[in-house]
Design goal:
binds phenylalanine, BirA Bifunctional Protein, domain 2, single chain, two-stranded antiparallel ribbon, 2 domains, alpha+beta
Length: 340
């Protein structure tokens, strides 16, 4: 039995030393120390020994077991550490590594148009003002001289948050905010998101973008309005572009006009896209600031006058790039956006 024990001991130690995985190690432990293990069965056979031999053998067997357990747990620790080391190495992040080619994003065509428009107006002496998208009914309609029964106030046309707050339907409330805060002379543009209860089709979206302009000073006339817009249109769309002012109605301007410009495709010759008229219709709305609006903002219309204009940035972006569907501007399809 003594030889048997030392044989088990040596053989097992040798095996443990060669082990490469935790699973193998566990298999060895079970095969020696488990219920049906070799050492266990030797211990079971002790009953057959004489009274004198039993304690001696018992002690020896315990020593062997303790020794093997020590070896097993040392090996286990070694293997666990190794696994950890490999894992750490695999998960190492090289913070100095660079990729071959980094994908760099760029401005969305809508933002680009808005910024280009702002840049141009800035060179013409306008300051850039920001306004909130969530507005008061007062700024969006009342202060802008909008009659209480004006159809645009309808629940079916406008997104109301509650009776007094809405998503602005145009950028014109920024006129009010500017005039309440600043004394004339005022020369500002403001671009941003606007919202109307429209169904989506090729040219309509419930969210769209406008840019608004306002000039208030002593002696401002319709001639200043026309000259400013003509300069802007020639600078932005090309020096051969012509303009046409058609009378229109806006509650906040009097007189008011809608502006058509030469067809973007044929520049006035006449082609299918302009129905052979030579004109692109309704590029912008404009007019002389209504005296009531000036008065509402504490500006004396006997001393000051002004003009205002507003236009759709989405439409301008579309004609600029030959985009025929507004949905493309909001679809976030990279294949589309990468073209600009
Ligand atoms: N706010 C008008 C619209 O959304 C446009 C406009 C702005 C007209 C300024 C006149 C003056 O249609």
């Amino acid at each position: 039995m003594k030889e048997q024990l030392s044989l088990i001991k040596e053989k097992t130690i040798e095996k443990i030393e060669k082990v490469k995985s935790l699973k193998e190690l566990e298999n060895i432990r079970v095969s020696i120390l488990g219920k049906k293990g070799e050492l266990t069965s030797v211990l079971r056979g002790m009953g057959k020994l004489s009274k004198e031999e039993r304690p001696v053998m018992g002690q020896l067997a315990n020593e062997v077991r303790e020794k093997l357990e020590k070896y097993l747990s040392a090996k286990k620790e070694e293997l666990v550490n190794e696994v950890k080391k490999i894992k750490i190495q695999e998960e190492k992040v090289d913070v100095t590594a660079t990729r071959g080619s980094l994908e760099i994003g760029h401005r969305h065509p809508l933002n680009k148009t808005m910024e280009d428009l702002e840049d141009l107006f800035q060179t013409m002496g306008f300051s850039i003002i920001d306004g909130p998208e969530v507005e008061t009914v007062k700024n969006n309609f009342d202060m802008l001289n909008s009659p209480k029964n004006h159809p645009s106030r309808d629940l079916t046309d406008t997104f109301y948050i509650n009776d007094d707050i809405l998503l602005r339907t145009h950028t014109s409330p920024v006129q009010i905010r500017t005039m309440l805060k600043n004394k004339p002379p005022i020369r500002m543009v403001s671009a941003g998101r606007t919202f109307r209860f429209d169904d989506v089709d090729d040219t309509h979206s419930p969210m769209f973008h406008q840019i608004e302009g306002l000039v208030v000073d002593k002696g401002i006339t319709m001639a200043n309005l026309i000259d400013t817009l003509d300069v802007f249109i020639k600078e932005f769309f090309g020096s051969d572009m012509k303009t046409r002012y058609r009378p229109h109605y806006f509650p906040f301007t009097e007189p008011s006009a809608e502006v058509d410009v030469s067809c973007f495709d044929c520049h006035g010759e006449g082609c299918p896209s302009c129905n052979y008229t030579g004109w692109s219709m309704e590029l912008l709305g404009c007019g002389m600031v209504h005296p009531n609006v000036l008065r509402n903002c504490g500006i004396d219309p006997e001393i000051y006058s002004g003009f205002a204009f507003g236009m759709g940035v989405d439409r301008i972006t579309m004609v600029r790039h030959g985009i025929d569907n507004i949905r493309l501007l909001y679809g976030n399809d990279k294949r589309f956006l990468e073209q600009f």
